[in-house]
Amino acid sequence: MDLVQAELDDFLSARRAQLAEVSPDLAPFVDFSEGLLRGGKRFRALFCYWGWRAVTATPDTFDPLPDDDADDDLPAIARVSAALEIFHAAALVHDDIMDNSDTRRGRPSAHRRFERLHSEQGFTGNALGWGQSAALLLGDLLLGWSDELLDSGLRLLGNAKASVAVRDEFTTMRTLVTVGQYLDILEEKSWRTRDERELLPRAHRVIVYKSAKYSIEAPLALGAAAGGADADQLESLRAFGLPLGVAFQLRDDLLGVFGDPEVTGKPAGDDLREGKRTVLIALARAAMPGTLRSVLDELLGDPDLDAQQVGMLQSALREAGAVDQVERIIDHNVGLALKALGSARISASAREELSRLAETTARRTA
């Protein structure tokens, strides 16, 4: 992933110079972007790269590339992967505003950093509102930058038809993750108006469109499309990527409630304070007696939950059997993904690496 980081560094360096010509006051846009784009797990970039390798390396061998022409496209793939990372950074900035999150990867979230800037510089007015407004603009700027970097990568790609396919895939991904995010915040506020029987399938739908497609399926398809994948190869990679993406988000949901803050970089029980109506919560509510369910409903979404209340909710979720159920669902989805991978017409090197990544993404601790 050194190539991806190099692309990001070069891109942000050029944007720093561009913004400096407008005003030195714009430096925080690049400073905060650099903080977001250093570190992280780079899963989207990895899946994009291995989606490309899956269809450009020699089938059933470990020969990394069949010919020099494919190798010539590596800079394009690095740039497309970097565009995915910038898009993800934009989504994180906007997500943290909507969730009112204080931290991201162990650092203050973007809107909190702008809020601190307001206070330190002695600006007039409300620091919180100004910080959120500035961060909203940063997220919008990152969205635009991701498009710039994607187009730059596509110009390097040697196959015009593949470039069109990549652009179409990126556009679809952008639409689906945006509407998926809306479905997420909709569930947080509208769940009381829904039939109890709808809560679990609605929570699953949020997983699919907010995260599963965007985190794994779309990056795989982007890389494969860049490599000129045929319809069968794309279908096989999607059949691997979607269930793995579901497992990825279910693990994220568990970490949002039970994760170690020293590892995740976010406070313990953060999703409980934010009121996330996840599959975990839907399963727990279905198993709880009415009185305990009422307590869960009353406390979930309270931003002032203390450590004792978080611990009580964590215990209630475990005792309801919801954690064990989610773990079984994760195992089931990983199994579906690996089954699809086993029959896919892709290179052996990609098959092995994607199998390893499946375990890494589903069993991670952060």
Mean pLDDT: 94
Strand content: under 5%
Helices and strands, in N-to-C order?
HHHHHEEHHHHHHHHHHHH
Main sheet strand line-up: 1-2
Report how far the terminal alpha carbons are from each other.
Answer: 19 Å
Low-pLDDT residue spans: 62-68
Any idea what the CATH architecture of the largest domain is? Orthogonal Bundle
User: What does the overall shape look like?
Assistant: globular
The radius of gyration over CA amounts to: 21 Å
The CATH superfamily of the largest domain bears the name Farnesyl Diphosphate Synthase
Which structural traits does this protein have?
globular, mainly alpha, Farnesyl Diphosphate Synthase, 366 residues, two-stranded antiparallel ribbon
Descriptive overview:
The chain is mainly alpha-helical and 366 residues long. The chain has two domains: 1-39 and 74-156, no CATH class; 163-366, Farnesyl Diphosphate Synthase, CATH 1.10.600.10. It has helices at 2-22, 27-37, 43-56, 68-71, 74-99, 110-121, 127-156, 160-190, 199-226, 231-258, 261-264, 270-274, 279-287, 290-299, 307-319, 322-342, 348-363, and strands spanning 103-104, 107-108. It has a two-stranded antiparallel ribbon. α1 crosses α5 and α3 (43-56) crosses α9 (199-226). It starts with a helix and ends with a helix. The relative contact order is 0.12.
